[in-house]
Design a protein that fits this description.
This protein starts with a strand and ends with a helix. It has an 11-stranded mixed β-sheet, with helices on both faces. It contains 13 helices and 11 strands. Strand 7, helix 8 and strand 8 (209-213) form a beta-alpha-beta unit. By secondary structure, it is α/β, with parallel strands linked by helices. It is globular. It has 2 domains: 1-126 and 291-336, Isopropylmalate Dehydrogenase (3-Layer(aba) Sandwich); 132-282, Isopropylmalate Dehydrogenase (3-Layer(aba) Sandwich).
């Protein structure tokens, strides 16, 4: 048995944990024969999961019984420091100790950020870790930062560009990622003084930099990696998610409005299913916190079992793509 990725999973992370998380773990083990999962959570739930897995899959499941949980309403850093035996903290500690290559949680985003920086630790030379999200579109695009850093400096954005490019190579299989800066216009003189300074730095030090892109370019495949600050990035991401959900709902209403439109919907059901799949925010299952010394992937709190599975498998693919090693070799020289 060859194990190429060891992923620790927070068994109590998410709105529907632990049941949905355990189901997601089972799906991931069934779909990836070279995956090992280190699951944390209540002993009874871990034992129940192990009991229903086929023998081969059960052999790739390690169980770590925990007694505490970090809830969404708690102060993230305080909870991470205080609850040493929480499922999230133990999952992060397994990465720090080298037992796991990365960890996945659909729990509190703030707590995942705190665990990533306080427990797993930053890669030497990384100023600020960033959350990267894969946007759907003509071709997928790595978009960062989407919430970790409300305020940035040009040198942060340069590091985001290098980290996003490493992730694009590993997860999207893009050999030479095209990198762009989100701005209010394409010209290098557009935007604030900071935006113009960031443009100059990226132009000089980010291989593959193609210039500015605007909000309308996010889903067109104009770039493989788009960088911005976490404040703008988070607002942009939530706007896209809300808009896509609204459009899909209104499309469904329109298609169900008459017999003729229902027949048209029936004829095009495969195409509509493909479109819905491309726009599904759970397609990759989560967003990685790039810049820490082990893979940390954060899922939606409302994740389904399929989304949990996708998040685990995406984390494993990033491990196999040596994202952390790539970031280490690319960012450290720039920072020195």
């Amino acid at each position: 048995m060859t194990i190429t990725a060891r992923i620790s999973v927070d068994g109590l992370g998410g709105d529907f944990a632990p049941q949905v998380v355990m189901e997601g773990i089972a799906l991931a083990l069934g779909r990836d024969a070279e995956l090992s999962v280190l699951a944390t959570g209540p002993q009874a739930d871990l034992e129940e999961l192990a009991s229903r897995l086929p023998q081969e899959q059960a052999a790739r499941l390690d169980r770590y019984s925990t007694t505490e949980i970090i809830t969404m309403g708690e102060h993230p850093a305080q909870a991470v420091r205080a609850k040493k035996d929480s499922s999230l903290v133990v999952a992060a500690r397994l990465v720090k100790e080298g037992a796991a290559d990365g960890f996945f949680s659909a729990g509190s985003t703030g707590a995942c950020l705190a665990a990533g920086t306080l427990i797993v630790g930053r890669i030497r030379g990384v100023i600020r870790p960033a959350i990267a999200t894969i946007l759907p579109g003509t071709t997928p695009t790595v978009f960062l930062d989407t919430g970790a850093n409300a305020e940035v400096k040009p040198e942060y954005l340069l590091q985001f560009a290098h980290m996003g490019a490493a992730y694009a190579r590993a997860v999207l299989d893009v050999a030479q990622p095209r990198i762009a800066l989100l701005n209010i216009g394409e010209e290098e003189t557009k935007g604030s003084a900071q935006a113009q300074e960031s443009y100059a730095l990226l132009r000089d030090q980010a291989p593959g930099f193609i210039g500015n892109v605007e909000g309308r370019d996010l889903l067109t495949g104009a770039a493989d990696v788009i960088v911005t600050d976490g404040f703008s990035g988070n607002i942009t991401l939530k706007t896209l998610e809300g808009a896509s959900s609204f459009i899909l709902k209104q499309l469904k209403v329109a298609l169900m409005s008459s017999t003729t439109s229902k027949l048209a919907a029936l004829a095009l059901r495969k195409q509509f299913a493909d479109l819905k799949g491309r726009l599904d925010p759970d397609r990759y299952g989560g967003a990685p916190l790039l810049g820490v010394s082990g893979l940390v992937c954060i899922g939606h709190g409302s994740s389904s079992a399929e989304a949990i599975c996708a998040g685990i498998l995406t984390t494993a693919k990033a491990v196999r793509g040596r994202v952390v090693a790539q970031i280490t070799t690319q960012v450290a020289p720039v920072a020195s």
